[in-house]
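step=encode ok
step=design start
structure_in=
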């Protein structure tokens, strides 16, 4: 009897120890430093990106985010969806993720106004929302991670104005402005930053267009119409990103506008960098997406554990609410500093230079030291 009792006690202790161990694995441990918590959780994290026409989302944001989550939490699962430029579709995707029991939503809104309803539904389920790259107009977003977006517009416009002055373009000459999507709060900030430079530069804006959905084809169509109207009066093109810049360049080439005026961009897309090397595009704005995506992943893991780190700053929504925020610094890139920015950071992978310097761009790469 005593032996049986002793064995029962030992068995009970073993079961209890196993239960405690499993509980520890399930609940997680650690602090908000973003350090490795591999295997410490089984939480689901939702990642919602806005469109497929902007190359960075599928090529950079998604893989960088997923890799960081896997590094920090081997038991965590990322549920991913792309809205393909449709606010209603993004709403449905978010609702599906909430139904599946995600613990955190990382939301890059296609429409920053419409996405407020997603935040409201998430709040009702006690699911925190990280407003990623684009700011959601909701006081209930928990965090915002992005870049200084007015600064982006200022960098673009200043580079364009400096280039025009360097080339001796006369004061009063005309610029086209191809802005971003009217549903994207970031595009509003890019435009605000750009106007803060252009409006006092001595150059005039011939015409201005807010590109629906950031669609390069729509930018191309609009610029085609402006070339027909203004022709050689166009001395520069402010384009809010590389996609719209590429559309503008295609329109001007199709109209045989020669020489091409300098064109700005943003996102350091591979095609944009190659256009800069070939001389078709003047500059882009490089935003180090890897640290942005990784910061979002670290913060999402923190939130699954109940940690609430303080942001580096706060940013006001369009409605005036202050959101805890982390803002990274954008960098202007021309042919002269491609090597020291996107190549050095391995933006397209460890073979970034090889991806840029295909046969068509080999001579330009040699000229500008891209290797």
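sequence_out=
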């Amino acid at each position: 009897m005593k032996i049986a009792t002793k064995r029962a006690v030992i068995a009970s202790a073993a079961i209890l120890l196993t239960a405690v161990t499993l509980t520890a694995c399930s609940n997680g441990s650690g602090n908000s430093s973003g350090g490795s918590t591999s295997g410490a959780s089984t939480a689901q994290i939702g990642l919602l990106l806005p469109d497929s026409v902007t190359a960075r989302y599928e090529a950079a944001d998604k893989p960088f985010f997923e890799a960081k989550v896997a590094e920090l939490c081997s038991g965590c699962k990322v549920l991913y969806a792309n809205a393909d430029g449709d606010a209603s579709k993004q709403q449905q995707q978010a609702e599906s993720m909430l139904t599946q029991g995600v613990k955190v939503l990382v939301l890059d809104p296609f429409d920053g106004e419409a996405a407020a309803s997603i935040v409201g539904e998430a709040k009702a389920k006690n699911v925190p929302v990280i407003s990623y790259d684009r700011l959601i107009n909701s006081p209930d977003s928990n965090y915002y991670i992005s870049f200084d977006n007015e600064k982006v517009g200022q960098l673009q416009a200043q580079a364009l104005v400096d280039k025009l002055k360097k080339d001796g373009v006369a004061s009063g000459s005309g610029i086209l402005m191809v802005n971003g999507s009217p549903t994207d709060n970031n595009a509003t900030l890019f435009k605000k930053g750009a106007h803060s430079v252009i409006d006092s530069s001595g150059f005039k804006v011939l015409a201005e267009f807010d590109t629906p959905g950031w669609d390069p084809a729509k930018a191309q169509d609009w610029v085609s119409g402006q070339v027909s109207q203004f022709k050689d009066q166009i001395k520069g093109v402010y384009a809010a990103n590389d996609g719209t810049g590429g559309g503008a360049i295609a329109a001007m080439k199709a109209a045989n506008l020669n020489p091409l005026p300098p064109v700005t961009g943003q996102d350091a897309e591979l095609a944009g960098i190659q256009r800069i090397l070939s001389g078709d595009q003047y500059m882009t704005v490089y935003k180090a997406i890897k640290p942005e995506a990784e910061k979002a992943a670290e913060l999402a893991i923190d939130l699954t554990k109940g940690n609430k780190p303080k942001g580096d700053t706060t940013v006001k929504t369009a409605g005036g609410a202050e959101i805890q925020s982390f803002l990274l610094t954008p960098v202007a890139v021309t042919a002269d500093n491609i090597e020291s920015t996107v190549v050095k950071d391995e933006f397209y992978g460890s073979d970034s230079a090889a991806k840029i310097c295909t046969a068509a761009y080999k001579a330009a790469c040699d000229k500008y030291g891209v290797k």
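step=design ok
step=annotate ok -> Confidence is low (pLDDT under 50) at residues 1-40.
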